[in-house]
Amino acid sequence: MAFLKENVLLVDDDVHILELLQRHLQALDYHTFKAVSVREAVTILKDTKIDVLITDLNMPEIDGFELLKFTAEHYPNMGKLVITGFPSIQDSLTVIQSGVVEYLTKPFTKQELIEALHKTLAQNTSASKTIKNHVEVDEPYGDIIGKSKGIKHVIQLIERVKNNKATVFISGESGTGKELVARSIHYQGQFSRGPFIAVNCGAIPENLLEAELFGYVKGAFTGADTNRNGFFQAANGGTIFLDEIGNASLAVQSRLLRVLQEKEVVKVGSQKAEKIDLRIITATNSNLKEMIKNQTFRDDLYYRLTVVEIYVPPLRDRKEDIAHLAEKFLYKYGLEYKDRLIKMDTNVLPILERYAWPGNIRELENILQRAIILSDKLVTVDALPESLKYNISFSDSDFVPLKEMEKQYILKVLHACNQNKTKASEILQINRKTLREKLK
Ligand SMILES: Nc1ncnc2c1ncn2[C@@H]1O[C@H](COP(=O)(O)OP(=O)(O)OP(=O)(O)O)[C@@H](O)[C@H]1O
Ligand SMILES: [Mg+2]
Fold this sequence. Notes:
Layout: E1 7-11, H1 15-27, E2 31-35, H2 38-47, E3 52-55, H3 64-74, E4 79-84, H4 89-97, E5 102-105, H5 110-133, H6 149-161, E6 168-171, H7 178-188, E7 196-200, H8 206-214, H9 231-234, E8 239-243, H10 250-262, E9 264-266, E10 273-275, E11 279-284, H11 288-293, H12 299-305, E12 308-311, H13 322-338, E13 343-344, H14 348-354, H15 360-374, E14 378-379, H16 386-390, H17 402-416, H18 421-428, H19 432-439
Parallel strand pairs: 1-2, 1-3, 3-4, 4-5, 6-11, 6-12, 7-8, 8-11, 13-14
Antiparallel strand pairs: 9-10
The protein binds adenosine-5'-triphosphate and magnesium ion (MG).
């Protein structure tokens, strides 16, 4: 089998050009991916490591310029080559500004194409080499977005555990990305070909959980009319992710302990142990230490589950990630709901950054999703929920100037009384004139 060279993504709304490019490149053993729209191209980019992008500029819906901007941001090391019909001077300038060096006009010969591709590749390898010499690579880690210290630390821990089967315990508030971290451990590591099975122990009725997890034999209980495997057997060779482990009954806990100690499972109603080899990741946002005190969680199990602990910090402790996350969600839901790229008004981000995000990334995602549905091309402050605009929580680590606090408080009160200044001044015990002055 021939060894395939680089992955090349071809983007053009003209399928004939796509076929032509593909034929030329495949003849030279390049591995090609085709997309007839920017939308499709983005989907491919998400799942595949692309070395070179070859794109047309004028396309309906979203044009090649947007794709270049997007890739310059998210895949700075990817080679980019533009092929287009009639470029205007303005077009050429924009393209050059987005970091593209090679530019080919239609029609082109096979030889011209190959030369341009080689030049692009040469540029690209030197670019990625320089990056690799730096200790930290500033690219997204799988699906995990964020450049804060907190998220970098999480990524470092994932790197440590991804290639071994050490049991991992993930803690963190609701919506911080615990499941995403679990998936990343599995999919970034060397056992990624094995299954990844996520089980929410809180969503399965307590009396069924044991049988669902470990399987059962015929006659184990009424209704057990056949032998059945559970999630553990299904996850063999890969990873099982047990979310909300605090919901596991003591019976489930003791079976789980056996898996960890003896590397074997016993089906409900059976005596026979089956060997099993998998990685166990658990997560919870309940307080297991408290449960140990109340004797609802086994301490011997706790210590075996927490071989490696990964704490995912809440969003309010890594506010610098908000801009990056927001951008991702704008992109994702912009394409999904509006078939286009949606931007945020400049005053939206500061509001997002000062909110405390009790629901963390999931809350941010939901709020932006809703805002995009309500917006046209631009997400403005109006599309944000009222609570976000006025309900400012000052955590004890946030020191704000008194004036700022006063301002926010006045706005909050005004909001609460539907902008009725008479009422607001009554509550604030200042006269209307003072209120008007302060509002200025
Ligand atoms: N760093 C991140 N980058 C991109 N997306 C993220 C990040 N963290 C979380 N998300 C997204 O936020 C949503 C919530 O994440 P996830 O389900 O992993 O949270 P969780 O901690 O398991 O929450 P819960 O405790 O409620 O189960 C998901 O859609 C996930 O993809
Ligand atoms: Mg979860």
